[in-house]
Design a protein that fits this description.
The complex is a heterodimer.
Chain A lengths: L7 H8 L11 E2 L2 E2 H6 L3 E4 L11 H10 L7 H7 L15 H13 L5 E5 L7 H16 L3 E5 L3 H7 L3 E5 L2 E6 L1 H7 L3 E6 L14 E6 L3 E6 L2 H11 L4 E7 L2 H15 L1
Parallel strand pairs in A: 3-4, 4-5
Antiparallel strand pairs in A: 1-2, 6-7, 8-10, 8-11, 9-10
Helix pairs in contact in A: 8-10
Chain B lengths: L3 H13 L2 H22 L10 H32 L1 H6 L5 H14 L2 H15 L5 H13 L2 H13 L2 H18 L11 H9 L1 H13 L6 H30 L1
The chains are: A alpha+beta, B mainly alpha.
Amino acid sequence: MGPNGAGKSTAVSLMLGLRDPDAGTVRILNGPAEQAVRAGRVGAMLQSSGLPPGLQARELVNFVRTLYPSPLPLQELLAQTGCAEFATRPVERLSGGQVQRLRFAMAMAGNPELLFLDEPTTGFDVETRRRFWASIHAFTRSGRTVLFATHYLEEADAVADRILVIQRGRVVADGSATSIKATAGGRFIRFRYNAPNPERLETLDGVTKVELEEDRVRLWTANSDATIRDLVHSGIPFADLEIGGAGLEEAFLTLVNAEGEVR
Amino acid sequence: MNGFWSYLSLETRRTLRNGRYLVFTLGFPAGFYLLFTMLYGKEASGTGYNFDTIYMVSMAAYGALGAALNSNSVALATERAGGWSRQLRVTPLGPMAYVLGKMATAVLMALPALVLVSLLGVLLHHVQMPLSDWGIFLAATWIGTIPFALLGILMGYALDPQSAQGGMMIVYFGLSILGGMWFPYQIMPHAMQVMARILPSYHFAALGWNATSGQGIGWGNVAILAAYTLLFALGAMRAYRRDEARQYA
């Protein structure tokens, strides 16, 4: 994840061996990127790829299949990627969303161990997007890895097990959606509180800040689970407890802006 | 050479469905052959040879040249610009298999024009010659498309899609007209004859003219074509490397 120009596509290009790093080396699947690509262990959906005219969708997908040592069966592949309904249509007559699905089918064709997707859902409607991520989930359940670049924060939040936020070519955060939200602002616990001396709340486990509202108090915490456990054990009276957090979007903006200020 | 045959088969199917290919490399040579042999009859003025045979060779060479040049240049430039060649690079198809697949497609696609125009010659104008002459003519005109396929690759790597389109047309018509395929070399003004002798296309067509007039293999023409093949191969390699360095370094 990262703002435009952060280096998402460049990172993907490096990992696919499409570009050489200025310094250092890139290794994926225990070897140089190019080796993994040539061996057919990797699939990729790049941001833009014009398709050659004069072919049916299924012909193109089938051609890509034949390049790999152990491809997915054609019918299964077409069905899984939502291409079956336009399989016999010429590629030059497909809609934007259909082209995107076809490109997804080409990335999946070789049944890869590692799948790269560079902003894959651009041009998808809501339903297509939902089906797309469902098939990605089915793919990862078989023990394989998907790495995707996106600027849709909800997508990263809902789908990714691990998020790397990059800014100006550097990793500024790395973790689960929850931990990234926590590093940039954390979560809060809010409850009705009308006992005296609220200072004692500051000593609860994980609390970073206490905000008093009319009849409620809001505790910002780096670890909401620990704070609640401590709150219950401490015997402090509370009612109507809510837990919330800064959204991934706020976390993202905080991270990206902080990095901007450093420079 | 992972995927070379798959790629060749894909590209062949695409080419055979391409209307431009069918019109330019089959329709035009066949049409011109019928038109001009009907206009000029058996003996064309000043050539001294049987015009039906000479023009059969010229049009077969013209179609084959068009196919060899056409298949690569514009498609390659478009695929580089549009990202298709990039997408193929993230599959096991290596960059060399991609280029060689294009090369092989171009040479293979030169064959239909050669066969079609020859068939017209035999069936409509009863062109006759010893089998060995047919063999030399067909083989030489087919193998002789290699330098033009390389020239197509060179243009495809060196130019953007728009200039490749225009450049290909200029090169195609320049080579075929000035090379003596449209109008016989013998009736050209002297200056044009000098020009023709510099161009690879004249020596390419001359292989067929020699063979079909019983003169066997023109080794001088072969030598000049070999030199052009080397030149275009080096040029294509250079353009390829430059593109590699710019896009993938």
